Amino acid sequence: MIFLKATSRIARWGRLLFLPRIGCSRTYLSDRKILSAVFYTMCLLFSGIPSAYAIQLSSDSQRATAGYYQLSWSGNIDLFQLQESIAADFQTVNIIYNGKDLARVMSGKPDGDYYYRVIDPDNNSLMSNVVKVTVAHHPLENAILFFIAGAIVFISTLVLIIKGNRKTAS
């Protein structure tokens, strides 16, 4: 829809700029011709631009503090292989997944930097971009403080319920 609006604006500008000079009328037929010419020209221009990667990999977070994150990818191949490494050069590789799925949830990772890429197992030269995810769990001290605060609130609420119940019962 946006592309159609942009091409119709270009056609209108072209009609206003060029058609009066070359003697064409401002009819629906000339608008269609201009619109078609602009559309085909844009298709020819943009069809020859290859994407940087045939497979696109993305992560829902670059820094995982909750202990889990999701990797998702897309591409025009049948089988995908998700690889993980702790170094950006992928000298040591762990194969996490082989198959047709387009996403994977990762959890249970210790703190550190992890690098991921997706390749075509049939053609190892066809690979995705590299995604870096930093796993940094919340400190244990914070978890203990939140547990203590929750326990205090729970016990206080329990005491208020018991005291309030005694007063209304008597």
Quick overview of this protein structure:
The protein is of the alpha+beta class.
Structural class: alpha+beta
Number of helices: 3
Counted up, domains total 2
Average pLDDT score? 78
Order of helices and strands: HHEEEEEEEEEH
CATH class identity of the largest domain: Mainly Beta
Write out the CATH superfamily name of the largest domain.
Immunoglobulins
Poorly predicted spans: 16-22, 47-51
How far do the termini sit from each other? Answer: 72 Å
β content, as a range? 25-35%
CATH third-tier fold name of the largest domain: Immunoglobulin-like
Give the strand tally. 9
Q: So, CATH architecture of the largest domain?
A: Sandwich
Q: Biggest sheet, in brief?
A: 6 strands, mixed
What sort of overall outline do the alpha carbons produce when their principal axes are compared?
Answer: elongated
Helical residue percent? 40-55%
Over the alpha carbons, how many angstroms does the gyration radius reach?
30 Å
Task: Describe this protein's structure.
The chain has helices at residues 2-22, 28-47, 140-169, and strands spanning 55-59, 63-64, 68-75, 80-85, 94-99, 103-107, 112-120, 123-127, 131-135. The protein is of the alpha+beta class and 170 residues long. The chain folds into 2 domains: 2-47, no CATH class; 55-135, Immunoglobulins (Immunoglobulin-like). The strands form 2 sheets. Strands 2, 4, 5, 7, 8 and 9 form a 6-stranded mixed beta sheet that branches. β7 (112-120) and β8 form a beta hairpin. α1 (2-22) packs across α2. The longest helix is centred in the last third of the chain and has 30 residues, at 140-169. The radius of gyration is 30 Å and the shape is elongated. The model is unreliable at 16-22 and 47-51 (pLDDT under 50).
